[in-house]
Amino acid sequence: MRRFFRPTWAEIDLGALVGNLRHLRKRVGPRMKLMFVVKANAYGHDAVLCALAAQKARAADWLGVSSVEEGLALRTSGVNLPVLVLGSLYPFESVLAAAAHDLTPIVASLESARRVAEAAARLRRVINIHVKVDTGMGRIGVRPDAAPALVRELSALRGIRVQGLYTHMAKAEDDRAFTERQLSAFRKVLKALDKEGLRPPLVHAANSAAALRHPGARFDLVRPGLAAYGLYEGFSPVLTLKSKIIYTKTVGKGTPVSYGAAWRAKRASRIATLPIGYGDGYPRALSNKASVLVGGKRCPVVGRVTMDQVMIDVTDVPRARVGDDAVLIGSQDGASIPAAELARACGTISYETVTALSGRVPRVGVGA
Ligand SMILES: Cc1ncc(COP(=O)(O)O)c(C=O)c1O
Questions:
Q1: To test ligand 1's pocket by mutation, which of 43, 134, 168, 229 has the most ligand atoms within 8 angstroms of CB?
Q2: Would you name the residues annotated as active-site residues?
Q3: Which of the listed residues 34, 37, 86, 354 should we mutate to test ligand 1's pocket, taking the one with most ligand atoms within 8 A of CB?
Q4: Average pLDDT, stretch 44-53?
Q5: Residues 118 and 263 reside in one and the same domain
Q6: What is the atom index within ligand 1 of the atom nearest the CA of 223?
Q7: Ligand 1: distance of its center to the CA of 240 in Å?
Q8: Is residue 8 domain-resident?
Q9: Ligand 1 nearest-atom number relative to CA 86
Q10: The domain containing residue 72 runs over which residues?
């Protein structure tokens, strides 16, 4: 059965995704474990599609999600790789749900560890946890000076096994000194644990930038998101946002287009309409700013992006017709519009641009 009629969709190149994960593994060394971060619906790329592709290709050892809900969606779709829930679990009942579905929680306080121990007692099994240390991110995590004592206390709790110890880098992409300070605080914790024979088997710290730019941040496992999706230099973009021209018309000089008449034709122009708008996560902030590829040529977005439609000027692509493909993010006939370009135009980062694509846009796996 046809999955959708409205011709707006995102192609997810699963071959490129697996290629990126393999390339990353080559860069960090074959013995390094790799946790593929698929939180927030795999940064908008479809978590189930991406996780299953990585699992099938044996391209990842672990998956990282942000909530129990995200983990459950993977488990109910046939994903059986180990999954770390990177977000702190609250309310504590969610610990039971996590454990029941073999999702590994993180712990950053004795209080949450006790809840995990209670869940372990109820389920009559041992629950693996990873302890989070805050070395400079300031989000969640035990302070480095308190971390060894916490790990010591956790190691004494029945039903808990401290399988991992980790931290998260705040400026790995552009601040070597800051990253070194974070790593040195983390290493101090490890040294103290080593002395007591309490170093957990999986130590990790590196997102994409840290894994690629700071070899000292790799430890036992790296946690890439951005590079896996090809949104990091040297990796292949995985997502192409596509639509089709559904209407064209020729307008005279001075004709306004879209809400607020914020654009007027400077010459006789051919205007094409695409069935995509901010309801799909194509930002309204791109009004009069972005371009869209048609026939391999950049066509400017004209007027305000509306909820469901956007207009582009195809005057310079005389062959453009109803039914032609339009690429809003990605490549077409040698031209490309990277997610980073749209992000810059909106004053944000490519993480947000791809993650913002809404559930209304079907994700279609290609290139598997
Ligand atoms: C804890 C944690 N690890 C790893 C990542 C992956 O980061 P990146 O996409 O920069 O590789 C994230 C993403 O924000 C994260 O929150």
A1: 168
A2: 39, 259
A3: 37
A4: 98
A5: no
A6: 4
A7: 22
A8: no
A9: 1
A10: 14-222
Q: Which residues line ligand 1 (CB under 6 A)?
A: 37, 64, 86, 168, 207-209, 223-226
Residue of minimum CA distance from atom 7 in ligand 1: 207
**Using 50, 70 and 90 to split pLDDT, how confident is the model at 1?**
low
- In the reported structure, the alpha carbon of residue 208 is separated from the centroid of ligand 1 by a whole-number distance in angstroms of 7
For 52-72, the pLDDT digits (tens) are 999 999 999 999 999 999 999
How many domains does the structure of the chain reveal?
Answer: 2
| pLDDT surpasses 70 at 309 | yes
Q: What is the mean pLDDT of residues 83-96?
A: 88
User: Can you give the pLDDT at residue 157?
Assistant: 93
Residue 211 has pLDDT above 90, yes or no: yes
Best mutation site among 70, 179, 223 for ligand 1 pocket (most ligand atoms within 8 Å of CB)? 223
Mean pLDDT of the chain: 97
- Please give, one letter per residue, the 3-state secondary structure of the chain: CCCCCCCEEEEEEHHHHHHHHHHHHHHHCCCCEEEEECHHHHHCCCHHHHHHHHHHCCCCCEEEECCHHHHHHHHCCCCCCCEEECCCCCCCHHHHHHHHCCEEEEECCHHHHHHHHHHHHHHCCCEEEEEEECCCCCCCCECHHHHHHHHHHHHHCCCEEEEEEECCCCCCCCCHHHHHHHHHHHHHHHHHHHHCCCCCCEEEEECHHHHHHCHHHCCCEECCCCCCCCCCCCCCCCEEEEEECCEEEEECCCCEECHHHCEECCCCEEEEEECCCHHHCCCHHHCCCCEEEECCEEEEECCCCCCCCEEEECCCCCCCCCCCEEEEEEEECCEEECHHHHHHHHCCCHHHHHHCCCCCCCEEEECC
- Which residue, 195, 222, 249, sits at the end of a domain? 222
The pLDDT, as a whole number, for residue 2 is 62
Do residues 208 and 133 both lie within one domain?
yes
| Residues 274, 205 share a domain | no
